[in-house]
Amino acid sequence: MTSIESDRAIQGQEVAARWHTKPYIRVLIAIAIGALVGYLWPDVGVSLKPIGDALIKMIKMIIAPIVFLTVVQGIASLDDMGKAGRIGLKALIYFEAGTTIALLFGLLVVNLAQPGVGMHVSPASLDTKLIESYVTQSHEQSVVGFLMNVIPSTFVGAFTNGDTLQVLFIAVLFGIALQRFGARGKPVLQFVEATSKVFFIVIGMIMQIAPIGAFGAMAFTVGKYGVGAIVTLSGFMLTFYAACLLFIFAGLGLVARVAGFNIFKLIRYLREELLLVFGLSGSEPVMPRFIAKMTAAGCSESTVGLVIPTGYTFNLDGTCIYLTMAAVFLAQATDTPMSIWQQVVLVVVCLLASKGAAAVPGSGFIVLAAAIGATGHVPVASIALLLGIDRFMSEARALTNFIGTAVATIVVAAWEGELDRARFSETLDNPDASKLSF
């Protein structure tokens, strides 16, 4: 054996020995084991819920300070305050265009596939007791109420409530004030930068136990809801998952190509976060690491700080696809005819209602109830039909939302000239070599 062959053999052995130590591999294994435990021993799987909840709570406790510090640092570091306004405006334009397309895309798919036709479900035969809390919460959904809620009652209240939009609102004001303070504010900015690094180190520590949390969350999901509901409504589930995949790889893939990058490379770069989103059925727990990875990839701190937190509320592509598909599916399943005009009204209502949806499990179900109730056409009681599979649907919604926000961040950064192209290309080509802030 030559020295070159020997070196290659040694490298191959090292790779084989290290593959199981990669974070995303550990998460994938944990999810698989969790699903198996939930399937074989449902009661055990349900009892493991606190493990997943503990991880989510640990991450959520520092989301607010990380969002605050990141946004303040990004804005206060800007020489041109007009840039922050442009970034925000461009992000909102992109969000509105993207979510509108997602709503129309879901409407097109469900009308072509017609997964609910032939089910002949009677709303009166469904148990609506389980959905009463969702319907009650849906009545609280309103545009005015949502906008007023962006303003916190107190400065500290935004952090104790864990409301990302309220924290973002305060951070923008604080960042602008700090930037206008000029040279005298430099010590404060340095303190913000140092504190931000400490919080990201904390996130790195918490992420070491991410596989355990993903295991508990998946074991609970499978153990609690089982596979019976999936089999019963497999047609709609498969149609929805196919729609999300098509939207990601065709729709967002086209946007990525126009913006000058490959959607597959981006997904490979974010694979660990995507697995956690899938395992935890929500994208909010990975927000701090998401912010760090997009910054490490070459997007400016100001762009990342403004686009990602805002995108978690305003850029919910997966939720939008689900809303129109689920509403029309329920109309088909209950033999409720819907005209083109009624479907257009549905799109408008969903466009407004979706803005109040948070990136956490169950929010899509609440917004669906609000949208159906507002249109007044499809029986609200029919949403009980989807209750058993909503947790599984939330995984596809969360993944699509997450990838959509990642693409939006890159597009807005490139649009504003805040994307380091060389660094970005190198990072996507060699994702394992990228350096994070923690």
Automatic annotation (TrEMBL):
It comes from Bradyrhizobium erythrophlei. The lineage of its organism: Bacteria, Pseudomonadati, Pseudomonadota, Alphaproteobacteria, Hyphomicrobiales. It is a multi-pass membrane protein. Belongs to the dicarboxylate/amino acid:cation symporter (DAACS) (TC 2.A.23) family. SUPFAM superfamilies: Proton glutamate symport protein (SSF118215). GO terms for biological process: L-aspartate transmembrane transport. Its main location: membrane. InterPro entries: Na-dicarboxylate_symporter, Na-dicarboxylate_symporter_CS, Na:dicarbo_symporter_sf. Gene3D superfamilies: Sodium:dicarboxylate symporter. This is Aerobic C4-dicarboxylate transport protein. The keyword Manganese does not apply. Keywords: Cell membrane, Membrane, Symport, Transmembrane, Transmembrane helix, Transport. It is found in: Cell inner membrane. One of its GO terms (cellular component) is plasma membrane. The chain crosses the membrane at residues 24-41, 61-79, 91-113, 155-178, 198-220, 240-264, 340-359, 365-386, 398-415.
